[in-house]
Specification:
- The chain is mostly beta strands.
- It has no helices and 7 strands.
- It has strands at 17-22, 25-35, 39-41, 44-46, 54-59, 65-69, 74-75.
- Strands 6-5-2-1-7 form a 5-stranded antiparallel sheet, with no helix packed on it. A two-stranded antiparallel ribbon has the order 3-4.
- The radius of gyration is 13 Å and the shape is globular.
- The mean pLDDT is 89.
Length: 78
């Protein structure tokens, strides 16, 4: 019996240019760190692991630092 399909996890590295959807529309930023352990940020614990990492991203427009899972991000070519 075939294995059920798992979503392909997107992996990014420091310096990658990415974009994501926010309440204000599409935002572009640069990955500053891959997070592989739970992290408290903005009063909330973001759950991450080696198998399911999250990424700290610095917005190019506002310098705001956000955290997102790889599935929410899309690599942008410079």
């Amino acid at each position: 019996m075939p294995h059920p399909k798992r979503p392909i996890s997107k992996s990014f590295k420091r310096g990658d240019l990415v974009e994501w959807n926010s309440e204000a529309g599409r935002v572009r930023g640069v990955v500053i760190k891959k997070v592989t352990a739970d992290l408290r940020m903005h009063g909330y614990v973001h759950h991450a692991s080696r198998a399911d990492p999250q990424y700290l991203i610095k917005s190019l427009k506002t310098d705001h630092v956000a955290i997102h899972k790889g599935g929410a991000l899309r690599r942008v070519h410079r």
